[in-house]
Design a protein that fits this description.
The complex is a heterotrimer.
Chain A: H1 5-18, H2 22-28, E1 49-54, H3 55-65, H4 69-77, E2 93-97, H5 98-101, E3 118-122, H6 130-134, E4 140-142, E5 148-150, H7 160-164, E6 171-172, E7 202-203, H8 209-212, H9 219-226, E8 232-236, H10 243-250, E9 253-254, E10 266-269
Chain B: H1 4-25, H2 39-44, H3 51-72, E1 76-78, E2 84-86, H4 89-96, H5 104-111
Chain C: H1 10-36, H2 51-65, H3 67-74, H4 85-106, H5 115-118, H6 125-153, H7 159-184, H8 197-223, H9 230-261, H10 264-274, H11 284-302, H12 304-308, H13 310-336, H14 352-384
Helix pairs in contact in C: 1-14, 2-4, 2-7, 2-8, 2-13, 3-4, 3-7, 4-6, 4-14, 6-7, 7-8, 8-9, 8-13, 9-10, 9-11, 9-13, 11-13
The chains are: A alpha+beta, B mainly alpha, C mainly alpha.
Chain lengths: ~270, ~130, ~375
């Protein structure tokens, strides 16, 4: 008794139009009332979601005020706890110095001391993801729209995916998030509309599947746009006219560790 | 019969152990479950599908919801009456049934089942 | 035959009770880990596998090593090993049991372990590892039990057992190959990403498995009336010598490729092991101990006089076990995670609960091993008498 794709998009469209959550949109609608809702939907469907990060925009803002809006927004929306210990840290989107983000591009004479500049890292949603290849239960899987997703209900916590990921994008719940230090997480859980995680499962950036499903942008992108930095750009790589393809046509871009053949879908314009 | 005495003694001890829980709990029959509906749930008259189905098989439905929503990105459910629901335990189910202790826990405790839903899904705050 | 395990001297029962106590302590620590999560271990988001998975790898090697008494007997018709093949098979059973337990205690969500079978995923090597280990366990149980029963009744075992034996021999190679595939197919972990890893694993397995077997044989001839035989032990010594030479040789091949090519990623872990990397060097003393013991073992095993002398052979075998245990049970897994994908170092060291749980697993393995060997040696004594 599912809802077909067309109808789903109408609902999603309405939801996006009014900026409502999925359930709220349903509450105000009766069946057959959904015509013409498609217009104004920022996102419909894609076959290869990707992100192009304009690092100059980001670094300019970071140098001005130490911006980390995208990180706080993501971690707030997804109930990511702060363990106060790098060993147990959960990271969906985070900052890492250029030389550590791109350790196989060593260049000590690179301009502007970029080596120590913080880059924005997140799951690469690889076209050929090793984490999906090694998972023994299909708890992590590649969706038809290109997003590498996690099914927390199925993960057995073997951590094979963490060994497989060459980007350090996966975090394990060494303990229950509910037991994370209270003084560091006074308001946890920060979003009562999103689940937490149990101890013993792996998690990572989900490219905001729950928002993309409603036609909305990932929360990091939305946040970056809201403060008018526009460093994070989300779009379909398979659509030659998409925003991401336009950016990639115009600028020289790099990806992390491309030689490994994972085909990352996060691009950096430096 | 070799060692007849020992065998009989062993049998008595074994059966005694087997029956121990019954003796232990004798006379303290647990109170039958008494799930309560919130005013909002009462007003809705019917859940996402028939009450009898929900009563007997809500876990099958939740299982299907989580699999189709998480794995197949089918996030909406059409009820037999044609109404459409967002598939979410935490956001949809618990919006009506915001009284977990008086609704879910009643039967779960009685049946001694401890679903791990609540390890991750946030329980609504209840007024005492 | 199980009744054989119920009759024993004081030492036998004392040993079993000692192991039971260790198992109990390990179990209590596991309950603590089960409640709190793997946060009670020394593992971290950077070193996400540790001592448990290292021990899994090491004991898959021990299990595979058991084949080194089976293979010469059945393939090369080396008659002398006929009386000790059962020891190899029973060692494999208890080693595989330890492997299962080490995987289990490493899981973040052990109650969901059956998901591996409910959602079979052939592209995951872990899925295949589970299959090959289960089948290897089953093969050894059926073969060992049937051969021993036949021996006790003084009749030849059934023909189909022989078929299983011929399957079990290549299967022993497969379990360690698949275990190496867990590591050597991962992009971005330079230390593991080497085609020779499976070969290295097998070499170290065929050194450490028979070495452990020699030590056990030396104990068996002391505490029971069954003598595995001096000739048998010496032949095993020769096998250990060859395998250990290969093991060290393969290791040197790795060093050549890493350092002659000059590719930094291939060198980092080796530098971390033997000199320290970016100021971190917790493994340096351990890896040097491993290297020194490997050298000592080679000297004792290569010189004919010391290899033939059972005392020095025993010392050589102990040296093999120490060297390979540090190399594979400790270094191999952790080394793959150092440095991390950001070229930074997070060090790892097991915690006390982690060690107690591991001791509990070892005790369980040796408990089963003791009982199986008790049965085997009792049957041998009975038949021999």
């Amino acid at each position: 008794m599912g809802v077909d794709r067309r109808e789903f998009l109408k609902i999603a469209g309405y939801a996006a139009l009014f900026g409502l959550g999925g359930k709220a949109a349903i509450d105000i609608l009766a069946p057959g009332q959904l015509e013409a809702a498609m217009e104004g939907v920022p996102l419909t469907e894609a076959t290869r979601w990707s992100m192009v990060i304009r690092m100059r925009n980001c670094l300019e803002k970071v140098e001005k005020d130490g911006c980390k809006e995208c990180i706080s927004a993501c971690h707030r929306v997804h109930n990511v706890p702060d363990w106060g210990n790098p060993k147990h840290e959960i990271k969906w989107i985070w900052k890492e110095a250029y030389q550590n983000s791109f350790p196989n591009h060593p260049n000590e004479f690179i301009d502007e001391g970029i080596n120590d500049k913080p880059f924005i890292l997140l799951c690469n949603h690889c076209l050929n993801p090793p984490c999906v290849r090694v998972c023994p239960t299909k708890a992590t899987f590649k969706r038809p729209d290109g997003i590498v997703a996690m099914d927390m209900h199925r993960c057995i916590g073997c951590r094979f995916c963490m060994a497989g990921c060459p980007y350090g994008s996966r975090s394990f719940n060494w303990g229950s998030p509910r037991k994370a230090p209270k003084e560091l997480n006074p308001d946890f859980p920060t979003n009562r509309d999103f689940p937490e995680r149990s101890k013993g499962v792996v998690e990572k950036c989900n490219f905001c599947v729950e928002l993309v499903a409603k036609g909305q942008l990932p929360v990091c992108v939305e946040t970056c746009d809201k403060i008018k930095v526009h460093a994070l750009n989300f779009g379909d790589l398979d659509d030659p006219e998409s925003n991401v393809r336009r950016l990639l046509r115009k600028h020289y871009s790099v990806r992390r560790k491309p030689a490994l053949g994972t085909e990352p879908n996060i691009f950096y314009i430096i | 019969m070799y060692d007849g005495g020992k065998i009989i003694a062993g049998l008595i001890i074994g059966i005694g152990l087997l029956l121990a829980p019954f003796f232990y709990n004798a006379g303290t029959a647990a109170k039958g479950p008494d799930p309560q509906l919130t005013p909002k749930a009462k007003e809705a008259k019917q859940c996402v599908t028939t009450t009898s189905y929900m009563r007997s098989s809500h876990f099958s439905l939740l299982d299907e919801w989580r699999n189709t929503a998480v794995r197949e990105n089918e996030r909406y459910f059409r009820s037999p009456t044609g109404k459409i629901y967002y598939k979410s335990l935490q956001v949809t189910c618990m919006d009506c049934h915001s009284n977990k202790t008086k609704f879910c826990d009643q039967c779960h405790n009685y049946m001694s089942v401890a679903p791990f839903c609540w390890d991750c899904h946030i329980v609504p705050e209840e007024k005492k | 035959m199980l009744e054989k395990a119920l009759k024993g001297k004081q030492g036998y029962w004392g040993w079993l009770i000692f192991l039971l106590v260790l198992m109990g302590i390990g179990f209590l620590c596991y309950l603590y880990q089960f409640r709190e999560g793997l946060i009670v271990t020394g593992m971290s988001r950077d070193v996400s596998w540790g001592f448990y998975i290292g021990q899994l790898t090491y004991f898959v090697g021990i299990a595979a090593g058991g084949v080194m008494v089976v293979l010469p007997y059945y393939i090369h018709d080396y008659k002398a090993f006929g009386k000790i093949t059962i020891l190899g098979e029973f060692l494999a059973i208890s080693a595989v049991l330890m492997c299962f337990l080490f995987v289990f205690v490493d899981l973040g969500n052990p109650v969901r372990v059956l998901n591996v079978m409910m959602y079979p995923t052939p592209n995951s090597i872990l899925f295949w590892d589970m299959i090959v280990l289960n089948i290897y366990m089953l093969l050894n149980l059926v073969i060992g039990w049937n051969v021993l029963t036949a021996e006790r009744k003084n009749v030849p075992y059934q023909k189909w057992v022989k078929v299983l034996i011929y399957i079990a021999i290549p299967w022993a190679f497969s379990i360690h190959t698949v275990t190496a595939f867990l590591y050597q197919g991962l992009p971005g972990r330079h230390f593991w990403l080497t085609a020779i890893l499976a070969a290295r694993f097998l070499a170290s397995a065929f050194a450490s498995g028979p070495a452990l077997l020699i030590l056990i044989c030396l104990i068996v001839r002391k505490v029971t009336n069954f003598d595995p035989g001096t000739q048998q032990i010496r032949t095993l010594g020769g096998i250990v010598a060859y395998a250990m030479i290969l093991n060290v040789f393969f290791c040197l091949l790795e060093l050549f490729t890493a350092f002659y090519s000059g590719i930094p990623g291939h060198q980092h872990t080796w530098v971390y092991f033997f000199a320290g990397y970016e100021g971190y060097g917790r493994f340096v003393p351990w890896m040097w101990v491993s290297a020194v013991f490997a050298f000592i073992s080679l000297v004792l095993l290569i010189i004919p006089a010391t290899r033939r002398n059972l005392d020095t052979l025993g010392v050589g075998c102990a040296a093999v076990i120490i060297a390979t245990w540090i190399d594979k049970g400790l270094g191999l897994v952790v080394g793959g995670f150092i440095p991390n994908p950001f070229d930074k170092v997070t060090e790892y060291w097991p915690t006390a609960p982690e060690m107690f749980i591991s001791v509990g697993v070892w005790a369980t393995g040796f408990f089963v091993l003791t009982i199986l060997y008790k049965i085997a040696t009792s049957v041998k004594e009975e038949v021999g008498a």
